[in-house]
């Protein structure tokens, strides 16, 4: 903003030159230019042009003048050099610090005020203008600046003031009914510049680096909102006092005023009643006394000014008039001393009143803060109640989910238990003991996958030979062979030995008809001769003998031989059974022929099968 010397001057020196060039071009106009320089450090106002006994200054709002800083030093300037010199002195007194981002970082907000008063000759009005050059401290992130200790406190105050300024700009841009000027001293001082009778120009600095992307966006939004504020400035004109009247009228008026003073218009002693009355009565009458003192002061000042002007004017006047003026000056001096004493008492009372007002203000602030705390606590309790209700609902939902999950887990556990018992049953009955021990030693639990795994087993040099079938359909172990006869679970076949329950008999055995003994003997002889002639020997081996031999061979492990014995026995029985049937057929035919010849009166087919006749055949 300040730039360098020569052609590279900044905006501030060029603004100073423009002001004085405009003053030089005006003729017939009187100007009074004064400057003030202050900084806002840690929310305290400091005077940068007068640092001796520099105590924090207060803000006051005066009707007609706006917000002013009390006891702020004002320096009159006659040229551009005077203004630059004043700014240089203020910059040297300004508070700066070192951070990671800037070696000479400003730790306060600075305001350079230029006040210009202008009055034209033979005019009853006076114009007043004010130029505020504001340097706002940079708002940087703590992570980038590395601020700690006092630097961190300074950054906190700076960010608070900038936040208040942003709120004011936002409220002005939105045409809000309430503008929070009083949130910060910075916004309070810039009240006229932001939303008052003024024109405002904001210059925003941004960085092109990508690391400053967020700060650049925030700065642009900040300036865009400030650009949305619309002000309509008008000229500040004050009517001048009637001090340039004719000489005759002023003399007559002066005489009248002097006579009033001499007659005791201001002869009231400031101590009258003051010492006898209590402090409460002084506080009640303080406003009236203040008004009287202000009126008296104004009248005395006006008289002094007018007398000085008259002295200049009366150089060419008569001597008697000068003598009368001197006498009036003596009386005015006396009245001034009286007014000074009254003013002193009024100042004491004013200080006391200010102290009481400050106490009242502090109490109001305490009450407001307590009320805010109560509201905050209520809101906090309300939020906690809502959160408590949501947590209770969540607990109920979680309990329902827990019950459902527990039921599912119990069902899964029961099913897993059934499967486990089934696998244990299979392992106990079908997996050899040696194999089970080997797999148990190889099993290992992997916590990463939460499951059991089998370690790799080294290749055996002498693997176990595959067991032989021993005439069974599938391979079988020696243990199963030994336990085959005693336990059905070790058998490869015929696991179940079921015996059928015979039904109740509903038939009778066949009873052949009785044969005459003579015929029976004849038939027996014939059959014997027939069998002898054919060399037939009917010998039916017993099946019990074959089964006994087969069981004995099975116990000895000769399964093939036992099977062969059973097959041979079966074939032999069928063969001899067929021969026996054939012999019976031949004998039957012979018997029928014999019966027919022995008893020709009977039909063989009827009598032989008739159950009613039991007489011997042929008798």
> CATH first level of the largest domain: which class?
Alpha Beta
In total, the number of domains comes to 3
What is the count of DSSP helices, taking H or I runs of 4+ residues? 16
Question: What is the count of β-strands?
Answer: 12
CATH fold naming of the largest domain: Kinesin
**CATH homology superfamily of the largest domain:** Kinesin motor domain
Radius of gyration: 68 Å
What's the story with the biggest beta sheet?
6 strands, antiparallel
Oligomeric composition of the shown chains? single chain
Give the amount of beta strand, in percent: 5-15%
Structure notes:
It is a single chain. By secondary structure, the protein is an alpha+beta fold. It folds into three domains: 6-239, Kinesin motor domain (Kinesin), CATH 3.40.850.10; 247-423; 517-607. 54% of the residues lie in helices and 11% in strands. The strands form four sheets. Strands 1, 2, 5, 8, 9 and 10 form a six-stranded antiparallel beta sheet that branches. The protein has a two-stranded antiparallel sheet with strand order 3-4. Strands 6-7 form a two-stranded antiparallel sheet. Residues 286-313, 346-394 form a coiled coil. The chain crosses the membrane at residues 577-597.
